[in-house]
Design brief:
2 strands; DNA binding; two-stranded antiparallel ribbon; DNA-binding; Tscrpt_reg_HTH_GntR; Regulatory protein, gntR family; about 80 residues; mainly alpha; transcription regulation
Length: about 80
């Protein structure tokens, strides 16, 4: 029986698609964890986990005290 994709993966995959399509460009600031949680109707831990996954994929970078930004792509 197939299972639904975890909410944090759905969020991460949607943001990944926006980054790869160019909708979100290198240097663009991402919404805060709180803003993502509210936008997707999930707990802040779920939104945080989605951002962690994007960081692991090297698609975003965090700047302490400033926020989270789309990473520059090395091509």
């Amino acid at each position: 029986m197939p299972t639904a994709e975890a909410p944090y993966r759905q969020i991460a995959n949607e943001l990944t698609a926006k980054i790869r399509s160019g909708e979100l460009r290198p240097g663009d600031k991402l919404p805060s964890t709180r803003e993502l949680a509210e936008a997707y109707g999930v707990h802040m831990n779920t939104a945080s986990r989605a951002l962690s996954l994007l960081h692991d994929r090297e698609l975003i970078t965090g700047q302490p005290g400033r926020g989270t930004y789309v990473a520059d792509r090395e091509q």
